[in-house]
Amino acid sequence: MKLRPLADRVVIKMVEAEETTKSGIILTGTAKEKPQIAEVIAVGPGGLVDGKEVVMCVNIGDKVLTSKYAGTEVKCDGEEYLVVKQSDILAVVE
């Protein structure tokens, strides 16, 4: 199964959070922060959304910074993805 986002939606896959701090302390699963950096897997076509023209600014393969609790979690072929609106993407990480 393949995900194809509609309108201004973007499918992203979260990058794993680091399991140790800079000082070498190993974090348990509950102590880790939710990761905010993700890789773009698929991008919708943009177009008219709520009467406004939306041009997509991200591309497949981009690393992006997202809002902490944005989007809808989806499982596809055993992988976990997040479907977000382009407006929930805060920045492209270069």
Produce a short descriptive summary.
The chain is mostly beta strands and 94 residues long. The protein contains no helices and eight strands. A hairpin with a 2-residue loop joins strand 3 and strand 4 (52-54).
Produce the secondary structure layout.
Layout: E1 9-14, E2 37-43, E3 47-49, E4 52-54, E5 63-66, E6 72-76, E7 79-85, E8 89-93
Q: Tell how many strands the DSSP assignment holds.
A: 8
Class inferred from helices and paired strands: mainly beta
**Regions with little confidence, pLDDT below 50 for 5+ residues:** none
Overall geometry comes to globular
What is the helix content? under 10%
Distance between the termini: 30 Å
Please give a structural write-up.
The protein is an all-beta fold and 94 residues long. It has strands spanning 9-14, 37-43, 47-49, 52-54, 63-66, 72-76, 79-85, 89-93. The strands form two sheets. Strands 6-7-1-2-5-8 form a six-stranded antiparallel β-sheet, with no helix packed on it. A two-stranded antiparallel ribbon has the order 3-4. A hairpin with a 2-residue loop joins strand 6 and strand 7 (79-85). The N and C termini lie far apart (30 Å).
